[in-house]
Amino acid sequence: MIAGRSTRARVATAAALAALLIAACGGSSGVKPSAYVRSVCQSLGNWRNTIQSAGIALQSSGAATAARSVAKQDYQRFVNSLVIATGRATRDLKAAGTPAVRDGQQIAQRLTSAFERATQGLTRASAQAKAIQTDSASHFQVGAAAVTAQIRSALEQIARASPGESQELRSAAAKEPSCVTLAG
Predict the structure, then answer these.
(1) 30: alpha, beta or left, given left = phi > 0 and alpha = psi -120 to 50?
(2) Is the CA virtual torsion 87, 20, 43, 181 positive or negative?
């Protein structure tokens, strides 16, 4: 199997960690904390749902048992979905603005930077997926393993984002249904 439960678990972990980031972090003038966490959690929820759907589509495509050329196309489609979803989330997170809390600019920057780095890593994974050789099973497996490793590395950029402390954002996130859904 090219991607499976491990990828879904990483996506869920990254989304939950990103939600904690916004809840745990602490800026300057900007968007009300409640509006900021709503925008961020909605964006992260959409991102998580898109990535999970892409993983399900890959699994149900039959890529694991299909001809290598077909599996490569399915895998490329999967990786491209990740790139598009993560790029969209990056734009949405930037559009969320800066929370009006202590260190708000740093909080927003940490989160958007993590998604920018993940998008860059996923773009590299997309290029690797296009380059997977299908002339032999061993070449295909080596290429697919490299792509999977690059996807993991990219998603870990999000998971490694360092939260700060902001009681205002924590409080707002605890009251925001889209944040509660992400954490649960």
Answers:
(1) left
(2) positive
| pTM confidence score | 0.82
Whether the Cβ atoms of residue 89 and residue 82 lie closer than 8 Å to each other: no
3-state secondary structure of 25: coil
Which amino acid makes up residue 52? Q
What does the DSSP assignment read for 133-183? --SSHHHHHHHHHHHHHHHHHHHHHHHTPPP---HHHHHHHHH-HHHHHHH
> Position 57: which residue type?
A
List the domain range (segments joined by +) for residue 111: 5-183
Between CA 157 and CA 99, with CA 182 as vertex, the angle to 5 degrees is 70
- 67-124: per-residue pLDDT in tens? 999 999 999 999 999 999 999 999 999 999 999 999 999 999 999 999 999 999 999 9
Encoded tokens for 111: 């989160």
Q: How many domains does the chain have?
A: 1
- From CA 43, how far away is CA 125, in angstroms rounded? 22
| Rounded (5°) CA angle 136-141-147 | 130
β-partners of residue 31 are 99
Q: Locate all alpha helices (DSSP H) within the chain, ordered by sequence.
A: 5-24, 33-60, 68-95, 104-130, 137-159, 167-175, 177-183
